[in-house]
Amino acid sequence: MTSHGINSRPTSSSSLKHRKSQAQDEHTSTAYDTLENFGEDTDFHGVKRIIRRDYSIPRRLVWALFFFIGAGLLGYQIVNRIVYYFTYPHVTKIDLVFEPELQFPAVTICNLNQFRISNLTDDDLYHFGQDMGILNSTFDLTHPDMYSTNFSERVKNIDFAAIGANDSAEFNVESFIRRAGHQIEDMLLLCKWKGEHCSAENFTHEYTHLGNCYTFNHRLTGTKHVSRKAGTGNGLKLYINVEQEEYLNFAEGADAGLKVLIHAQEDPPFVKELGFALSPSQHHFIAIRREDLINLPNPYGNCFSGTLKYYDHYTVPSCRLECELETVYNECGCKLAEFPSNYTVCHGHQYFNCARPALEAVEHSDRCVCQNPCNVTEFKHDISSATIRPSTVTNLQEMHAHLPSGTLTSNLIVVNVYMEALNYKTIEQMIAYDAISLLADIGGQMGLYIGASLLTILHLVEFIGATVGNKVKPSKEGSTKNVKVHPVA
How much is the pTM? Predict the structure, then answer.
């Protein structure tokens, strides 16, 4: 009995080892069968040939080499495409659009001379004569030889001491600019729109950095003039008298002529900075063409599409005007007449001694730099000129007999503004490489290098999930079972 019991222990241990080895072989065989089934079922073309049992080992190794080379190239291309995507590239599309009619732009004109000498009162000379370079510190003419005898005598007879004794710091500069500046009723000798007569009533007054300016087709009139034909006969024609005999002899009034700006109705006239000059005694032909610019915001571009405090539409001129307004107001506690807002217009010497220098400091610095708008309409122009014939001057002189004899020849400017063609150019920035393009490129590279697609990747994920699940489940079940071998009694 004892001997029989002793011999039963090795037999039981050997049987247990045999069963464990058999289970491991079965598990290995099952795992390989599962992998082989996946290889036969998957769309990974290289994987099928790597794990096929009917292929020789060298053949399977060659296919494995090709597969991993393809996978490496795929990884490189994916990284390359992702890096390119985050450079946020864009392309520019240019198109020419033809229309049966086009909205005519706003046309703003300003005299290069800001104030008329005959409109300056004694109070004006007291307050601003020195600031404008007419008078010196003792209230004498700075350059007597540059002025008429009548004006020189008038200045000598002004009692500046009496004016100073009754001086008020509340001198209204805004009304001074409006009154002392050139008037459209005096400058405009003849106006025609599409061959029909127009007048000063068709122009809207604007305060600008050049003083009084006047805009045809202004946004506030509620009228939007359109052109249905190209050419000079279907545009605006102006005969302007620049009144050189009224010019002041200081730096800003040294040149004679007009400053003109052609702009969209929603844009404020930024004439001093963006306008072009027209000289007297010339007939100027201005052919205009419209361009619509559509820019991309960050990260593909740097345009800005926000709102402004005092303007309905964001443009570079309106942004700069608001910035200049805040700069002048912060330094002087008041504003210039041409600025928007309800701030008080500077009075007296504060206008020339604080506000104007503050504005000039901004103009000559890097402050008030504004981003480009995302949508903007611009009007490009080409100018050609011809000399005005004496007969044109004679006819106008007969129509305006009140004009001083012999002065019109050197003062007359004739301007034709017209559409060059009934089309406009659109310049649009477009995203060159978006997320869809990135996914398409990755999908194409997957198909090229490893013969895979999105569904193939999902199949691989499903296989990995199922395999891991099957491994975890038996191990959990097996951990709860204890196999006990009892010796044979």
Answer: 0.79
